[in-house]
Amino acid sequence: MAVLFTIPGEPGAKGRPRFTRYGHAYTDKKTVEFENLVRVAFTQHVPGHQPYEGPCRVHIDAYFSIPKSASKKRKKLMIDKQVRPTKKPDCDNIEKAILDALNHIAYDDDKQIVETSVCKYYSDVPRTIVMIEEV
Fold first, then answer.
1. Domain spans of the chain?
2. Which residues of the chain, if any, have pLDDT below 70?
C-alpha cells in the first residue's frame, strides 16, 4: 500500500552539520524545523501508520514558488513544467531531510529505501509531495 502526503510551504533541505567551538556537532535550526514539519505532515495525513519493515521506494515532488521577477510568459512556462528550478536546495539534500525525518515513523530506518526519485517544479502553491511504498 502506498502512502501519499503533502508538506506545505517551500521545500526544505538537510543542512550541513554545525560545530561548537569545542567540536560538538549539532543540526541547524532550519533543518530541525523542516524535519519536524515533515513528521507532523506525515502523522496528520497517515494517522496510526505502522512503520514499513521491508524495502521501500520513495518519490518526492518539490514545488517552489515562482519568482516575482518572472515575466508572464516565463511564469506560464514554469507552471506548464517547461522551465524547472535549477536553484538550491539540491535534490539530494531535499531527499535526505525527508528520509531522515521519517525514520521510525514511515519505516524503521532509511537504509530500507532501495529506490528514490526527486523532481523539482515551480508552482503558485509551494509544497512537497511525498509518496512511499513497499517494494
1. 3-134
2. none
